[in-house]
Amino acid sequence: MRRLSARALVIGFAALGTLAQPVAVGRAVAAESSRDVVLVGTVPDPDLIALGVMLAAAQPDTDFLLDSARPESIIKPFFDRLRPTTITPVGAFPDGSVKRWGVADSVVKPTVADPVAFAWALYPKAERAVIAPRSPAPELLQAACLAGAARVPLFVLREGDDPLKGLKELLAARGVKEATTVGAARDACKKLEGVRVTELADATAAAAAHRKELLRAGKIDTLVLANPVDAKKHAALAPWVAVKRRAALLLTGAEGKDAGTVVNAALKEKDTARADVLIVVADTNAIPLVKRANPAAGKDEQIDVEPWIPETDDLITLSAGRLFHADRAIVPLLLARSRLLEKASGPPKILIASNPGDGLPLLETFSRNTGRELQNAGWKVTGRYGKTELTAKELREALPEQDAFLWEGHYRTLIDQFEMPKWTEPLRPSLIFLQSCLALNPDESALLFDRGAAAVVGTPNRTYSGSGGALTLAFFDSLAYDGRNAGSSMRHAKNFLLCYMDLKAKRLGDGAKMSGANKRAAWTFTIWGDPAMKTPKPVAPADAMPALACEVVKDRVTLTLPEKRYPPTEVAPYKAEMWPGGRLAGLFTTDEESRLLAPLAFAEVSLPNAKDGFTPRLSTKVPSRNWVFRWDARRRVGYILAVPREKDEGKIEFRVHWDADTPR
């Protein structure tokens, strides 16, 4: 989690001019090892919104959770792992809450029935406040983000004849001298005495003030997207996520079908043009997937794609994930589980189950190398490959002890033959990667989230095992060797496939087959969970083999190929000998006995001399048919994919030339 800089404590609103006094919060920010929890019961959504942003700003390391109708299976397992120091219940709860949560009486503080009183108690002194209407929803949501970013208390107008009930006392007790009203709150505050009132006309004005507030602490890296009127009410948690991640809040229309337009517009705006991460706080009904023509010939004429994915062959530019569940209480748990996963002790543990039904030799070739790569990076790998090496009983017993699980094979084997939906054992906070056709669906993913998973990765479409296996290998390599989070690793893997599609076209021309399969995989593999999630940091073993490396010095990029490759992986008719840190895809040559997969070198590079108005062009002694380079101008990041020749053993050097962009 990002910490606010000292500069961020000196806050102000664009509409108010510069305000120089820092905000005093209720207590010091907790240490990163904090195990304090605020658990919210039944409260009105406007109060939930206010409580969420005020707690996130005042006590950013305190877990903010919602009570569930299924506490024994949802809340208790998390508390068993977290072992909270304190739990503060806020709102209304059924009788016997302590017993329901499975914690000692001494851990649970007295219940605070009034969420407004609790939230404002976090700010004993405050010179400023934000006042928001209960509706329309966009005004409330953007006002909440503004208050959270500015680290000032938020007051939401009360229901009934006195919308300002209690506000005068709250302001006077804290010495508030300035109040910013948003939209429909303006009229109610006309007669507010003793404070200077500044009006923001609507949600758009509040969003602009929020972004200016964020920019005081640096560029805006993250976007949060929500539908303000979604039926599942996930939008009530969107401002809390935005404050936790120092993100700008984007809102769709009522049907959510304009999500792609909203995101693309944000990436063209000055304040948010450099955003790197997109967190969607909505299910696929509130912000639906879009239908596109299937780029790979097959059973389906159309496929389902997240609306912010480019419609062309352009690179994937955002690191993205969705937070949602039919039980809204699981949404904040996903962020809390992600934190526990990253802080887990010992090497990350993964169970890989590949090709258990047999018949997918290319996929198994990839999977075995994924296991090798993770083990070389310091992960503890349990690999089960092929039909004879895995039973449902073994998988069921092993799964709860893993930090990650990779399934590569037919989905129906996992669902029908192994009957995974019937399993109920709690899981560690973990990453579940289902590399199968049609594996990512809300109902079955919900069962994994119920059991404790932090994220589920897969595709809602059919996929070919080769392109899926190549993407999976690239994803886990990026996660393990480069230390990227899940969202960045997925973007890295998607762009690897798009580069590979270009390389195939270069080498094979019209004879290139299955290029559409690579595009389909790049378009449709998705993270449901926190894209910023990281696995525990591994420690490479003493006998680890050196991995492929990339170095950028001024205008020279060098790929250093390891001296040694892994021993051959043979799953007839395929054979592979890859470098540690390398890549594999479906490019192979054929001899009399096997299909030899070509080892590939792939690197994501940031070029220090990048500047607006210029595009890098690379040159090298390697023949052009053996490499491709793609440039993401918005992020100023490039991707190099090469097929090294025998004479290229050791290093491949590229020179960077900067060409002025041609005016359009």
Structure write-up:
- This protein has 664 residues and is an alpha/beta fold.
- Among the domains are: 202 residues, Rossmann fold (3-Layer(aba) Sandwich); 112 residues, no CATH class.
- The protein has 17 helices and 30 strands.
- The strands form 8 sheets. The chain has a 6-stranded mixed beta sheet with strand order 15-14-16-17-18-19, with helices on both faces.
- Strand 24 and strand 25 form a beta hairpin.
- The protein is globular and about 85 Å long.
- The N terminus is likely disordered.
- This is Cell wall binding repeat 2 family protein:: Peptidase_C25.
Oligomer: single chain
Beta fraction: 15-25%
The CATH class designation of the domain at 328-529 is: Alpha Beta
Overall CATH architecture of the domain at 328-529: 3-Layer(aba) Sandwich
Low-confidence stretches: 1-32
* Nearest-integer average pLDDT: 92
Overall 3D form = globular
Beginning-to-end CA distance, first to last residue: 40 Å
* Most strands sheet: 6 strands, mixed
Widest beta sheet: strand line-up: 15-14-16-17-18-19
- Share in helix: 25-40%
Strands, count: 30
Helix count from the secondary structure assignment: 17
CATH topology of the domain at 328-529: Rossmann fold
The computed structural class is alpha/beta
Q: Compute the gyration radius: what is it?
A: 26 Å
